[in-house]
Amino acid sequence: MIIDLIDGTYELFRHFYGLRRFTKEGEDRPFGAVTGVLNGVLEMIENNVTHVGVATDHVIESFRNRLWTGYKTGEGIEPALLAQFHPLEESLAAMGVAVWPMIELEADDALASAARLADKDKRVELVRIWTPDKDLAQCVRGDRVLQVDRRSKKIRGAKDVREKFGVEPALIPDYLALVGDAADGYPGIKGIGAVGAARLLNQYGAIERFPANVLGDELEAALLFKRLATLRTDAKLFRDVDELRWQGPTSAFAAWTERMGAPKLLARSLKAQAKRQSSL
Q: What is the 8-class DSSP label of residue 239?
């Protein structure tokens, strides 16, 4: 059994700005990015993906905003994109896909939680996390839990994470705490770059083990940034991985495909459902 976990928020952004290359601002299709994400998920199902879950940010803000005032918010997100967040969640559910809309936590936390839950199940042979987000590199486990980066067409196991960042997957939160993450809105520790961070972490281990003189007055900030970078794995998303098995669209999906002006999605999903049932 292979489990595929998808970063729905990233995919929505990717498709929105992919379409924007061919449209003028203000002429965005109301469900253009949603349709793109659904097409991508359905294509995976047509290519024999059996167990799939999609994590989304129902709202952009999370508990991390209370820890660091500069943490990312929904400010600046284009209204045409923001308006597609909730329709994505609803249409995915109508298509019969397990979807996890996050409020207090983030989509990344849901992916980390789902990966942990799936990794614990002995029936699971492989877990693939579909996102380029460097935060998720901390979830990689050997060649069993992998990160798939569509953007660079890379599949990363633990060895690949070490080659890219210079540290083990478990030290990715420490690494990000030191170098910062502009996308998430925290700066890291001044004067420490990627090479220096990897050297310190390989020499001393986690930040908590650094000698007092290494970070000095910056230790407290580094530990805060590490907390921001550490993904939560305790979200209660499902009890059994079989809850992620795709069994076909619900009766509500026809209305969604009509609303989106994408009738082929319904036909394809029904065809994929028939094919799956015939193979049982």
A: S
Give me the CATH number covering residue 246: 3.40.50.1010
**Residue 26's pLDDT band (cuts 50, 70, 90):** low
Count of beta carbons in the 10 Å neighbourhood of residue 211: 8
CATH value at residue 203: 1.10.150.20
Radius of gyration for the alpha carbons in the chain, expressed in angstroms and rounded: 20
pTM: 0.94
Side-chain-side CA neighbours of residue 203 (13 Å)? 9
**Tokens 């905003």 belong to which residue?**
65
Distances (CA, A) of 176 to 105, 185, 196, 198, 254: 19, 11, 12, 10, 44
178 and 115, same structural domain?
Answer: no
Beta bridge partner(s), residue 7: 55
Same domain, 20 and 85: yes
The answer to whether position 280 is within a domain reads: no
Residues 64 and 131 in one domain: yes
Average pLDDT over residues 150-177: 95
CB contact set of 220 (below 8 Å; sequence gap of 6+) = none
- On whether both 220 and 120 belong to a single domain, the answer is no
Q: Which domain holds residue 187?
A: 165-229
Q: What H or E segment, with its residue span, contains residue 183?
A: none
* pLDDT value for 25: 67
Taking the C-alpha atoms of residue 9 and residue 31, their distance in angstroms, rounded to an integer, is 14
